[in-house]
Design brief:
disordered N terminus, two-stranded antiparallel ribbon, alpha+beta
């Protein structure tokens, strides 16, 4: 996983960790959500991330959501 820095219109820097190489563990689509569960990282597309979000957030130690990138 790579961290990318992209300047925004306001001059702030927005950090992206997920790239097009990161794929959803459920279907293989591009991942926009990363969750850490029991020391392992799970990657999900927006669809599967939303589908499993409620259950995963209860056990995840971290939740990283880049689905806002889909609206850009």
């Amino acid at each position: 996983m790579t961290t990318l820095s992209t300047p925004t219109e306001t001059g702030a820097v927005l950090e992206y960790r997920l790239t097009a190489m990161d794929r959803c563990d459920s279907c293989g689509a591009q991942a926009y959500i990363a969750a850490e569960v029991n020391g392992s990282e799970l990657l999900f597309c927006a669809h599967h991330g939303r589908k499993y979000e409620e259950k995963l957030r209860a056990v995840a130690t971290s939740w990283h959501d880049e689905t806002a990138r889909l609206a850009e």
